[in-house]
Amino acid sequence: MPQGYPPQLATAQAQGPMAPQMSDLSQQFSQMGVGANPAEYQTAVLGGKPQLSALDEAPPAIKLPPNSTCVPSQFVICPPSHKRSTLNAIPRTDKLLKKTKLPFGLVITPFKSQEQGEDPLPVVAEIVRCRRCRAYINPFVQFVEGGRRWKCILCSLSNDVPLVFDYDSATQTQKDRWQRADLNYSVVEFIAPLEYMVRPPMPPVYVFIIDVSYASVQLGAPGVIGQTILSALDRIPNADLRTKVAFVAVDSSLHYFQIRPNSTEPQQMVVGDLDDVFLPSPTDLLLNLHECRQGIECLLSRLESMFKSNHSVGNALCPAIQSAQKLLGALGGKIIVMLASPPTIGEGKVEPRTEGKDLGTPRESDLLRPQNTWYKTVAAECSRTQIAFDTVFIGQQPMDIPTVSGLARYTGGSVFYYPSFMATRKPEVDRFAQEFANHLSARVALESVLRVRASKGLRMASYYGNFFLRSLDLLALPNGLPNHSYAVDIEIEENLTAPVVYFQTALLHTTAYGERRIRVATLALPTTDNIHTVFHHADQVAIASLLSRKAVDRALVAKLEDAREALQHKALEIIGAFKTECTQSSSGATTQLQIPRALQLLPFLTLASLKHTSLRSGNNVPSAMRMSAINSILTLPAEQGVQPYTVARLYSLHDLPPQAGYPDEQTGITVLPPRLGLSAESLLPYGAYLLHDGSDTFLWFGRDVSPALCQSLLNMQDVRMIPSGVITFPDLSGGSSGDGPVAGFELNFQVNNILRRLNDLCHNLWKPVTYVCKEDGEPVLRMWMAQRLAEDMDTSAPSYQQFLSQIRDKVNRGNF
Amino acid sequence: MVKSTIIARVADGLPLAASMDDEQAESELAGYKSQAKAVFKKLNAQSEPMCSIESGPYYLHYLLDQSVCYLCICEKAFPRKLAFSYLDELAKEFGTSYGDEVDKTSLRPYAFIKFDTFIQKTKRIYEDSRAQQNMSKLNEDLRDVTQIMTKNMEDLLWRGDSLDRMSTLSSKLRDQSEKYRKDARRVNLEALYRKYGIPAAIVLGFLLILYLRYKLF
């Protein structure tokens, strides 16, 4: 049972999709001290099946001493989806931290969008900052000298309170300073005045570099790309009609499209001389979306027919990038590179790398390293002029993703990979179209920079994610996105004497409609001397997210084996440290390992990370897939990265509870059925199951599944009639969940609602493709699905039970 | 051609809109843009409504209209009439679109940055100073050039010059007094010659004859 909260802060604990009930308001204050009663901390015994429902719970409560905030407000606890720490009770000394062996870091999603049901972030017009350390004012400051000065939380300097806090000069009235949003909310947005601008706010700019070489035309990519962008034109951020777009088609020469101001017909200009790249026309290549709308629509709809019979085989991506840089000049913007073949012309051309025999050997790690530094150099130059790259890789050709994706990784962009794309495969086309359209319509944070400040004694050691690091602690993100997150390793340099430490992240950005803003999120965490408290307030999801980022980073820099080794070792160390420090049997062997309840899923999460495509050992993961998975791990927020991307969700469909798939009476949110353990044991021969891991959905049918189920789910008489492989999951109930199910297809209705809800939980990052996998069906599909069943043994890693016993042995022996 | 345009509020110098310039322009014009900011600071309701300020290789032309200042940085060769005709067009369009919103106190910087698209379009029309329409504009008697005040940037920033209407007279006065000083010097020198010229010439002639006669020693 969680510790008590003071009445004001009680409501702040409700976070996450299935938050536990709020604690009783009648708990005593005196027991509020951190590290109070170790006997109330629950430990779990490592064994049996992992309790996956714990992944949906909120992180351990942050218990601040009373009077930590100047205003008793329920919004002072920083929501975990914005920023979460691996430890919700910080050890006061580095020695203590090292004893626990727990990793200390933050996982930040700086530009998170507010979801449905969440209020928009409060906006404050006046910026008040500390004179010395430049921290922003926040709910945790203390007002001294009768309210005339405020004490900074990071450097303890007393600053003057500006007049604007108490007096509104425009309306000549007194103001109540305690109503100010920046003293009540931990996440606020400030409107930045002129001093925070180097130049007038830039508009959103999108340059599309589209591969139209033979390989791309074979896949039908130009046509699909043209149609997708055409349908997304209204969704691209264009609130003040300044958005600019440009299109460059690339094969062995560069094709530019010019639309003059008074015409609606695009003119194509082909540049074959690629040694010294130049723009064929000084104007009208970068088009204003609103003014040249007709011409742009005409161009996009003709894209397919223009290049239908193109047989050119080269790919002049490097000159294209250089000319796009010239096109954007000092304006900046986003360059979206869409490739279906490797770049073969120019300084950054890539040689094909044969990888067949290197997979599964130590040489595999070399395949993940870039073959030349051209892309990283270009990315560094571009981030200075506020240019960001997104890279989209389409098709099966070896495009050397590790090298070319450097463009996106060092400018804060995204990497997309669609290996099975083909214009004739409708599910793949739908997937590409929806994901790309969602990406284009995302709110962007233009010309933005991110800085994390912490209390005295704490130091930000290293950062993980897609960004460019400028001047030690400033992350440059030319086009920040709402679904990108970053992780920071934190070191304790000096012993912490204060009872509470603070972390403040500030993201200075220009919104898509030309306003310069600063989003500030302040997180306050209590400190403690008690090692038990530290263990019982650790956040396992944040720890898993941070450790998997560190592991993939290590895999990119060193070897995959080292990364796997380090991850396992870390898990062992943590469990060993708990045993040594916190349990009675500190030095002897035990038959049962104890672990804090807060960390009970840590071994399982470690195993799931080891089995994930990004780190998986074995010789059946192509390096392109691996690189794409690594990039996802590095950028996904903790909530989506851990679940469902690493730990899939498995539900049984043959015994769905009656309320699953229908909206809950009180909240209106679709109720999800109970999850099953991720093991083949859960798959019974007469059952049908749904496995969702974010980007893919698997429907598993046992060989004895009842025909009635097949009928109700897919309108097919018998399980033998269901085709194996990719299907488009039909919607047999007329679409919206508002109308009830059509009689006879209730199961279909429920499953559709469940799928919709699962996608919402992932913030529509992916449009999953549905695969049908039958118990006696194709082995490839079965193997693919089996890779997601993390509790089972497979070629790459042991089963959960075996893993636990390995841990137990190593911890008991004391050497690991 | 017009290199850069900035539109700001006269009362406090708050920039309302500006042109997004390309890379080359940014690096060359950085200094001149900060000079433009200094000019905005010096402006007030009593300032001269139209003025060209000379600074290095550029002219900063500005136009005041309904408490908004429209400033453009142009090359010296760009005809002044064209520059003011350009500013005039901007002023008309901006006034009709946003005129009544300019005086709000809570306005954020670059609040009307979406005006940039119109600035770009207008700039393109005025780009070629030899284009047909522009020639006809030059030939029309739009504004008398002498009515537009001319200043020097150095004077403005460091010698404490100001942009008031009244200062036209005082700068005229200053120019005139410069001229007067030159003239006075000249006249002084002439008077000196006239007074001492002839005797000095005679003495010099005498010394010359002596030297020639006795050049043996």
UniProtKB/TrEMBL annotation, chain A:
InterPro entries: ADF-H/Gelsolin-like_dom_sf, Beta-sandwich_Sec23_24, Gelsolin-like_dom, Gelsolin-like_dom_sf, Sec23/24_helical_dom, Sec23/24_helical_dom_sf, Sec23/24_trunk_dom, SEC23_SEC24_subfamily. GO terms for cellular component: COPII vesicle coat; endoplasmic reticulum exit site; endoplasmic reticulum membrane; Golgi membrane. Keywords: Cytoplasm, Endoplasmic reticulum, ER-Golgi transport, Golgi apparatus, Membrane, Protein transport, Transport. Residues 670-718 form the Gelsolin-like domain. The keyword Endoplasmic reticulum applies. GO terms for molecular function: SNARE binding; zinc ion binding. The keyword Membrane applies. It is found in: Cytoplasm; Endoplasmic reticulum membrane; Golgi apparatus membrane. Residues 201-439 form the Sec23/Sec24 trunk domain. Residues 127-162 form the Zinc finger Sec23/Sec24-type domain. GO terms for biological process: COPII-coated vesicle cargo loading; intracellular protein transport. Pfam families: Gelsolin, Sec23_BS, Sec23_helical, Sec23_trunk, zf-Sec23_Sec24. Residues 446-528 form the Sec23/Sec24 beta-sandwich domain. Residues 539-640 form the Sec23/Sec24 helical domain. PANTHER family: SEC24-RELATED PROTEIN (PTHR13803), SECRETORY 24AB, ISOFORM A (PTHR13803:SF39). Belongs to the SEC23/SEC24 family. SEC24 subfamily. This is COPII subunit. The lineage of its organism: Eukaryota, Fungi, Fungi incertae sedis, Zoopagomycota, Kickxellomycotina.
TrEMBL record, chain B:
PROSITE patterns: LONGIN, V_SNARE. It comes from the Eukaryota. InterPro entries: Longin-like_dom_sf, Longin_dom, Sec22, V_SNARE_CC. Residues 134-194 form the V-SNARE coiled-coil homology domain. It is found in: Endoplasmic reticulum membrane; Golgi apparatus membrane. The keyword Transmembrane helix applies. Keywords: Coiled coil, Endoplasmic reticulum, ER-Golgi transport, Golgi apparatus, Membrane, Protein transport, Receptor, Transmembrane, Transmembrane helix, Transport. One of its GO terms (molecular function) is SNAP receptor activity. GO terms for biological process: endoplasmic reticulum to Golgi vesicle-mediated transport; protein transport; retrograde vesicle-mediated transport, Golgi to endoplasmic reticulum. CDD domains: Longin, R-SNARE_SEC22. GO terms for cellular component: endoplasmic reticulum membrane; Golgi membrane. It is a single-pass type IV membrane protein. Residues 6-119 form the Longin domain. The chain crosses the membrane at residues 196-214. Belongs to the synaptobrevin family. PANTHER family: VESICLE-TRAFFICKING PROTEIN SEC22B. This is Protein transport protein SEC22. It comes from Coemansia thaxteri. The lineage of its organism: Eukaryota, Fungi, Fungi incertae sedis, Zoopagomycota, Kickxellomycotina. The gene is SEC22.
